[in-house]
Amino acid sequence: MSKVKNSDFFTLSVTNAVQAIHEKDITAVELASSCINRYKDIEPKVHAWVYFLEDMILQQAENIDKNISEEKSKYILAGIPVGIKDIFNTYNMPTSMGSSIWKGFMPGNDARVVTNLRREGANIFGKTVTAEFAVHEPGPTLNPHNKKHIAGTSSTGSAVAVATGMVPAAIGSQTAGSTIRPASYTGVYGYKPSFGCVPRTGVLKTLDTLDHVTCFTRSVCDLPIMFDAMRVKGMNYPYIFDNFDLKKIKKKQMWRVAFVKTPVWSNIQSYAKEKIESWMKTLLEIGIKVSFIDLPKEFDQSHNVHNTIYNKALSYYFREEYQSSPDQVSDAMKSMIEEGKKIDLDYYRECIDKQNQLSAQLESFLSDYNIVISPSTSGEAPRLGEEEKADPCLIWTLCRVPSVHVPLFKGPNNLPFGIQCITRRYNDYLLFKFLNFLRDKEIINDSKIVNFN
Predict the structure, then answer these.
(1) Please, are residues 42 and 195 in contact by the beta-carbon 8 Å criterion?
(2) pLDDT value at position 204?
(3) How many DSSP H helices and E strands does the chain contain?
(4) I want to staple 47 with a disulfide (CB 3.0 to 4.6 A). Which of 81, 140, 301, 354 is the partner?
(5) Catalytic site residue 154?
(6) Residue 167, class by beta-carbon neighbours within 10 Å (0-12 exposed, 13-18 middle, 19+ buried)?
(7) Which of helix, strand or coil describes residue 83?
């Protein structure tokens, strides 16, 4: 590890911090203390957290150091501070789900993914701000690049906590674009795994066929580490075991890349189109074969299918809050629930069938390519009060494929945005390999920590 001052340990990536702790260059307590100090400097300006208790964090760090010194475990995430989106159960912290209705609720258990993180040595740092019920009504979190622009909605607290260096990693969720969008708007890596790889037990449910557990980091090298810590493993999960635990990607890869504009290309800002298309030429220059393709016409209905499934599910899962505490439910949430109540059950089932058909069709359509690239968002973060334009996020979420937001560009307001890299379902490690290939070629880089402006 290159020499880093104690006060700057918060700048370490997950990869470098784990190595340093295992090699006893630093301790989990020292890393935690540095991140706590960073929290004290930055949090009052950005409002990324809803629960943060210094004494608890330091005690957890001491326990991790003790276990490491006794060689009880070779932790994947030895002492790494991880922020937890406030829709995941935590036994020792409240889970309010962005709603005043559930403020202070103590579930008494950990979500399965939080258990997995703790088991691998993560220091659970606290709960990050989420939109109301992880949908659309935003919390108080500000964009650290410019407070006059949005930072996203649902997983914004986790994205901002990572972008500003309060933690090197955080978990979030995505049912539409709740990870890719805030990752784009704040300039960090956001990763949505293949659907079904990370357990959702103990997590707020909004939609059975679309809810994904996700993560944010500042380095592409950290994504496979987080995935290995979060996901299910072993022979009790035979499909995952066959595709991840047994499948090794060791051979030299011939990259076959497809650039897909998607049906919402008209929403992409002109400056974003120019920068993305110019970046694609960089791939051609290093010898990657790139094809420019369009999705089949059936994918034009993706957004309608997604919205139908989404609204109908919300009207079912949040009917009690809507009926018993309407004054504590936002107008945005009420509107979606009302729309969902109007949707005929048979039509909802047709849309579920259509989701499965589109997923299968995408799997077949992409068989000639191992990587797909599309825009992440329409451009840099909109100003507060401006409406977000429809972007490609919904298509890849609907079809349950893994995707990673890669921070690459700056827009006219000097705000970040980037592209998504996608692959076929259960090819997550191939996606990591491609991104690390680009990093080795210095085509992509780690994110720099942002100070609030």
Answers:
(1) no
(2) 97
(3) 15, 11
(4) 140
(5) yes
(6) buried
(7) strand
Tell me phi and psi for residue 62, to 5 degrees.
-60, -45
Contact by Cβ (8 Å): 449, 218? yes
Beta pairing class for 289-293 and 212-217? unpaired
- Tokens for 396, please give them: 């890849």
Q: What's at 369, amino acid-wise?
A: Y
Question: Could you count the other beta carbons within 10 Å of the beta carbon of residue 4?
Answer: 17
Output the six-digit token pair for 187: 């300039």
Residue 123: burial class (beta carbons within 10 Å; 0-12, 13-18, 19+) = buried
Q: How far, CA to CA in Å, does 421 sit from each of 115, 133, 234, 276?
A: 29, 28, 27, 12
What six digits make up the tokens of 365? 């359509």
pLDDT value of position 250:
64
Q: Where are the domains of the chain?
A: 6-245, 256-440
Q: Choosing from 13, 154, 173, 378, which is the catalytic residue?
A: 154
Q: Per the residue annotation, which of 34, 85, 192, 261 is the catalytic one?
A: 85
Topology agreement, domain 6-245 and domain 256-440: yes
Active site residue 367: no
Question: Looking at residue 253, what is its pLDDT?
Answer: 80
What is the 8-class DSSP label of residue 263?
A: T
CB neighbour class for 175 (10 Å; exposed up to 12, middle 13-18, buried from 19): buried
Report which DSSP code applies to 388: P
What integer is the mean pLDDT of 137-142? 95
| Residues 145-164 pLDDT 10s | 999 999 998 999 999 999 99
Query: Which SS3 state, helix, strand or coil, does residue 397 take?
Result: helix
Torsion of CA 18, 19, 22, 26, to 10 degrees: -80
Q: What is the CATH number of domain 6-245?
A: 3.90.1300.10
Does the structure show a pLDDT above 80 at 221?
Answer: yes
Q: What is the DSSP letter of 88?
A: B
Cα(309)–Cα(205) distance, integer angstroms: 13
Closest by CA position to 154, among listed 203, 105, 218, 94: 203
* Domain 256-440: top CATH class: alpha beta
CA distance 16 to 366: 35
Q: Which residue among 99, 155, 178, 184 is the active-site one?
A: 178
Report yes or no: 242 and 232 within 8 Å, Cβ to Cβ.
Answer: no
Q: How many CB atoms lie within 10 A of CB 194?
A: 23
Q: How far apart are CA 342 and CA 257, in angstroms?
A: 41
> How many whole angstroms separate alpha carbon 62 and alpha carbon 68?
10
Find tokens 């509107």 and name the residue: 335
Q: Among residues 412, 35, 403, which one has the least CA distance to residue 189?
A: 403
Q: Which amino acid is at 240?
A: I
